Amino acid sequence: MSKLQAALICIALCGIGGLIFYLIRSRDPNLVKGYSATITDRDLSHPEDTSIERIYVNTLASPRGIRIESTSAGRQRISISSASPHPHVVLDPATGTFWYPQTHAFLRAFTRGPDDPKDPDIGGEKATRRYLGYDTVSGRKAKHWEISEPTPTGNPFVWQYWEDARLGIALKWVKPDQSSCELTDIREGAQPASLFQAPPGFREVPAPNP
Questions:
Q1: How far apart are CA 90 and CA 146, in angstroms?
Q2: Contact (Cβ atoms closer than 8 angstroms) between residue 89 and residue 98
Q3: % helix / strand / coil in the chain, to the nearest 5?
């Protein structure tokens, strides 16, 4: 058997194993298949710049994807990321158009300890994260961390971060005198497939300049 044949067999077996693992997980009634939530993002130095978005996520339900509905300068924008030939698409409901934005991917290696957040890059590479235990945030059980970021003055910038214990996602953070963000109105359950594709009748246009 050649090295190429062995590699192909290994890839195939890994793919089958991953598929079996996914199918087993997708049938577990205790696992969250998806959820929706409201995201409130506040600029603490300019409270009038508060933004509110609605997010829809399928984690195990099909199709897996993320949809974010936001409004900027009075215009609604819908951003969809999914496992499709075009993984990212932006919708403009006012004009009935959509486009595929240019995206860039990168890979980084992380090590995560048992008391670290699911996102090991919270605060950046040089930040320290101190686990403080469980809290209740927006009626949900949450894990709480204190994040310390180094600054040029030598005095660390300290802020608070909470992660949803059930969903494993950022639930809230507060950066003193800078910003805060919180998820509320979280509704667990699979989201409709129609949310993760451009509606019928929308036409494709070139992506605007960044």
A1: 35
A2: yes
A3: 15, 40, 45
Q: How far apart are CA 157 and CA 168, in angstroms?
A: 24
**46-96 pLDDT, tens per residue?**
988 889 999 999 999 999 999 999 987 788 999 999 877 778 999 999 999
Place of tokens 């359950």: 189
CB within 8 Å of 51: residues ≥ 6 apart: 40, 41, 70, 71, 72
CA-based angle 121:51:142, to the nearest 5? 45
* Residue 130, amino acid: R
Rounded-to-integer distance, Cα 196 and Cα 130, Å: 37
Return the closest-CA partner of residue 82 out of 198, 180, 4, 184.
198
Q: Is the dihedral of CA 179, 131, 105, 55 positive or negative?
A: negative
Q: Which residue is listed with tokens 């969903």?
A: 167
Extract the tokens encoding 88: 């990212």
- Helices first, then strands: H and E counts in the chain: 1, 12
